[in-house]
Each structure stands twice: as structure tokens, then as C-alpha cells.
């Protein structure tokens, strides 16, 4: 059966609502399912489980924290990735800090889902951010699934986890479809990466939609006799350092492609880990958005500041040439 | 709840805070505190109207709220001193005291943040079939925080059993309320259709009576109530002010503000003998509490990030 990424998210939400009465969804336009992620769920579960909210992101994000403190497992859908800037206080300074600050008296199992993160064609400066590195930096568990099966499995694990978890579903991955045996859909543990393609010459680390670009680049390069291993960490934080180490031990060359701004981004962290721990035959490379990037509207400009396949291929050639 | 019980609470808070200021001065408490002195009637009156299954959220000026809710003063002292036996095992401090076993969902150091948390907790409790009312404390400064106004809207829309308790002490740190709040405080809540009342926050009996009717309204499914409790902060915004010599309040104004003292207002309702008995009881309790806290172990720095995650993954 074909399963689309979007349908996988929808299925994960429906399954968790069905098995756990403490799970409920809240967010803007989720009754009408404007983003399609919650399609059919209001009709199935009713207004107490699928809570349509006014445009009050800060209050409803804290509301979810309060509901979690009272024993529920809220899942918030944010239609726009940049809204996470508006609720950074509520996620980072509130939800994330309660466990430590109370000496472990409570837990805050809230999931924040962003369907359509990163650039969406034509949505311009304030709707096109991809701030997963920010959440990793502050220590909030953060996942960026690449495939429908992982979208299902990581969202389920995020909901079942006892801490706040942010789930980025990249716009560039929402259209991906997989051949899936529905009976094999299962939770995917947080913090465990996967080898998306095995290879021997260079390890390419990619997340979300960029995994598909990395796989395409690997196909392209295989005709030149270059064998690429694509490592998909799936979870940005905590990073599967051991899984990455295993891959790099084999290839001894590393390139990271990352849809974050360059400074202090996810790729910067992976390269720092590599510098501390890995034995490489060539300096590692990263392909990212430029420093301080704001995505301009015109499509050619938007594409010009996003990390892409051509830059990735150039970076792979560079690490193969250097010794 | 008798007059004597209310007096015991206001007296306990007053003497706790005075001792805590001494511990700041002597260096036993790092970083200082936001003393609740002058505002004791509000915590005492509100918490006296709540039942055991109810919940509260508190503020940076929160010792009074948690004491009125019944925390062990030894564990609160120990928390302020950063000891392992503290309410939060020394991980929260003065601005984050929490005791979930008493329904205290934490004091919150971000002004206006807790109103929406309390609203969510009360909504969730009702959804799970519990008869819980939430009381959320905040100051006049929070009336300018958008997320609190958003919370009023959610609470009113969904008829959430929450009581918004605004402690209007006239100042957001040094900013006078007249220079900060356009229109009236209660009118802001009333604009959302929330019944809003201004009450004398120096009189515990009046606060108790107003909160009792708000609790009744919440339990009968009629939704939120807003209580503006007018009060005066007798001491500093924060103990740093004891050294900072700020001049935002005149001596005359402070004297006038201190003339309506909740401890005296409630104390006058007791016989001299009863009052002396309560005072002695409170001193004995606090003597013992301070002794326990001072004798408690400091946390192990190796466990500085214990409790960071409820379900720990592999963290570096």
C-alpha cells in the first residue's frame, strides 16, 4: 500500500487518540484540517479531543503545559514553522524547564508538530523557517522525519515520550510516498538514526527532505564509481553519535547537508562532534543556508539560499579530493 | 476556617518572610527574594477557600501562596537555601517553589505566564472528571502581558473553572500601575465576559468571602472569575533594593501603605491571649523549620542536571 508522509502523520495522530484517552490535539484550524494533518479526526473524536483554538499561540502553548501537568498528553499543531519563534518562551522556558526546576515532581509530555516546516514555495520570509537547530541547542527533544514510516513512528514516539518533543515535518518531504505494509508501522525510538543508503567512500548526514536530495546525489555519483553512505539521524536532539561514528569509521569522510543557517546550526554541531571524536581522512564539509539567511520571496532567490543537491555534490567531490 | 486560622496564616507568612530576609542578609539564601510582606491577606484568603483537590500557580513573589496552601516551612526554607531537602530538591529556589502533592503547580518567574498554565490544568482536570478549581496569582504588571489576556479569552470561551487573582500592589517593580494600565484592571477581564471584582486585599476575611463565591461559580460550571485584590507591598520589590536606594516610592507613601497591615487587621479579631498563643506557635514552628533547613545537606554537583528529562535518552 502507498502511504504518503502527510497521511502517515494523520494516521499516527488517529492511532494515538484511539489507544490513549489522555491524548488530545489542539491548534488552529485543526477541526477543518486546513493542513490536512488532522483530516477526519474531529469527526472521529469530537471537540474535547480535537480542540480548535483561537489565534492565541502563546496562551494555548502554555495551556497545553498546564493540561500536561494535570495528566493529559497534548499534541499541538502549528501551521507555520515561524510561529515557533512566538512560542519559544512557552516551549523552552516553561514546558522544558518544569521537570528540572521542580526537582522531578512532574512531567510535561507535550508534542509540537509542524507540518510544512522550512521553505514552502511562495510563502516568503515569515513562513519559511526551519528552526530545529534552535530546539536542539536548548535541549528540547527534536525530530525531523524523512519518510512516511519514520513520520509515523517518530510522531508516535514523540507523543508517548514523557518530555516535550518538537516534530518538524519538512514541506519538501510532505509529498513523499512509500510502499508500506500498514501492519509494520511501528514506533521509531527517539535518538536512533538509520542508514538510508549504505556506501563506503563518504558519509553524508542529512535530515528530512534533504535525505531525498542526498539519495539522489548518491545515485548520480554512483555512476562515477563513488559510493555514498547516507546517514539520517532522524532525531536532531539527542543526536545518535554512536550510529554516526559507526558510519564514519567505515568511510572516514564526512559531509553534512542541513537546512539551518550556518552559524551554530545542526551541521556545525555534527562537524564539532567529528572534530572531537572521529578520525577523518579529509576535513569535513557542510552545506547549509547562509549565515543569517532570511528566505526571499522570488523563487530563484528562495532556492539560492537553500542547501541543494549541486552544492552537496561539490562538497562530496571536495572531501574526496582532499587528503 | 476561623478568624484564628486566617490570622495564623498571615502571621506565618509575615514571620517566614522576615526570617528569609535575615537569611538573605546572612548569606544563607543566595540571590535574594521577592518579599510578600504586606500582601499576606490575599494568599491566606484565597487558599482558605480552596479544597484539597484544587490547584494553584504562584509567582516570583510566591512564598506566601505556597505557605498558605500548606507547604512544610522547613522544606520551603531549605528550597530557598538550595538544599536537597527543599521542596524542589534545591533545583528551583525562591521563584519556583512547587509541591505537586498539594496541587501547587509551581511558582513562575515569567510575569503573566502561569495564567494560561492554570487554565490548561483546570480544563484538563475537568475533562478527566475531576472537580478541580485552579487559582492563579499574578500582579498588576501581568495585566500588560498579552498571553494572560489570551488566557482570559480561552478561560471565558471554554468556561474553565479558574480564578484569576490579580494582586494589585500598585507597582510592576518600579512602574506605577497608573502609568502602565490604560483603562481599569477589572474592565479588562470584564471585556471577556468574566465577572470581575475589586476587593480589599488587606483583609483576609474579605478575600476569603470573594474567593468562596468564585469557587462556587467555578464548581457549578459557570467558568472563571477575576478578583482584583488591592494591596501594598511593604518591603522591596526584591531584596537587592535594600542596597540599591531606589526612589520610586516616597517615605510618606510607604508609611501610608503600611498603615493597613493585614496582620494587624486580622489580629484585631482575636483576643490578646489567643493572638499571643498563635504568635508563639508560629515562632516555634519557624524556629524548628529554620533549624531543619540549616542542617540539611547541599545537593551533589555531580547531580546538577538530575531531573532535566522525565524520560532520559542518552544525553551528552
UniProtKB/TrEMBL annotation, chain A:
Keyword Cytoplasm: no
Residue ranges annotated for the Transketolase-like pyrimidine-binding domain, each copy included: 3-176
Keyword flag Oxidoreductase: yes
Sorted UniProt keywords: Oxidoreductase, Pyruvate, Thiamine pyrophosphate
Cofactor(s) the record lists: thiamine diphosphate
InterPro entries: THDP-binding, Transketo_C/PFOR_II, Transketolase-like_Pyr-bd, Transketolase_C
GO MF annotations in UniProt: magnesium ion binding; oxidoreductase activity
Identification of the protein by name: Pyruvate dehydrogenase E1 component beta subunit
TrEMBL record, chain B:
SUPFAM superfamilies: Thiamin diphosphate-binding fold (THDP-binding) (SSF52518)
UniProt organism field: Kribbella antiqua
Gene3D superfamilies, per database record: 3.40.50.970
GO MF, one example: pyruvate dehydrogenase (acetyl-transferring) activity
Cofactor entry: thiamine diphosphate
Alphabetized Pfam families for the sequence: E1_dh
The UniProt record lists the keyword Oxidoreductase: yes
Ranges where the Dehydrogenase E1 component domain occurs: 10-276
Highest taxon in the source lineage: Bacteria
GO BP terms, alphabetized: pyruvate decarboxylation to acetyl-CoA
Protein name according to UniProt: Pyruvate dehydrogenase E1 component alpha subunit
InterPro entries the UniProt entry points to: DH_E1, PDH_E1_Alpha_Subunit, THDP-binding
Keywords, ordered alphabetically: Oxidoreductase, Pyruvate, Thiamine pyrophosphate
